[in-house]
Write a structure and sequence with these properties.
It contains one helix and 13 strands. It is mainly beta and 194 residues long.
Length: 194
């Protein structure tokens, strides 16, 4: 049962996004019983459409509510906490599931969007983040807990061999645990070799 107007708004936004995420929990605290290290940066693209994908390698659903993703401050080398895109309360990442986040949406409102506002060919919705990732120099992106502790990071590698327009990304094979390598772009789906 939804117990507050803010929870209702979060539920409406998540429902609107059409993401295969189970949302609308009235619990306002992030999941405590599931290891947050099970949530990994699974795939990232900084060429053309910028996006990243989170994957739940854990044994149960994970509540992303209050967690955030952000890039790195170029002066301090630390996560830019003040620029983090926060997931709405009740955003659940299913076991073995994916969440897609479009990057570089500086003139947009962060948050969930329906599939028609995401990438072509991706049937599920996505989230928007305002920061971008440098394709040429490489850059770290971070997953932050609700208290701003760094849970995990991924470095978009400047040394991977990408050619513009060929649909390649940096990803983990197998999903959630492999080393970062060059992959065929598969936003919101299982990773594949080029």
């Amino acid at each position: 049962m939804i117990s507050s107007p803010s929870a209702l708004v979060s539920c409406a936004l998540i429902a609107l996004s059409s993401i295969a995420l189970s949302a609308c929990s009235s619990d306002s605290s992030p999941s405590k019983s599931v290891d947050p290290s099970a949530v990994t940066f699974n795939e990232i693209s900084a060429a053309g459409d910028e996006w990243l994908e989170l994957y739940n390698a854990g044994s149960s659903d994970f509540d992303l509510g209050g967690y955030g993703i952000t890039d790195t401050d170029k002066v301090t080398g630390e996560p830019r906490v003040d620029k983090a895109m926060r997931f709405p309360i009740g955003t659940k990442l299913p076991q073995g599931g994916y969440v897609l986040v479009l990057l570089g949406k500086g003139k947009s409102t962060p948050g969930p969007y329906s599939a028609d506002a995401c990438l072509p060919g991706v049937a599920k919705g996505c989230f928007y983040a305002l920061f971008s990732v440098s394709e040429t120099r490489g850059e770290a992106v971070h997953l932050l807990s609700a208290d701003n502790s760094k849970v995990s990071s991924i470095i978009y590698p400047a040394n991977l061999n990408f050619e513009g327009g060929v649909g390649l990304s940096a990803c983990r094979i197998p999903d959630g645990s492999g080393d970062v390598t060059t992959c065929k772009s598969t936003p919101g789906a299982a990773n594949a070799s080029p």
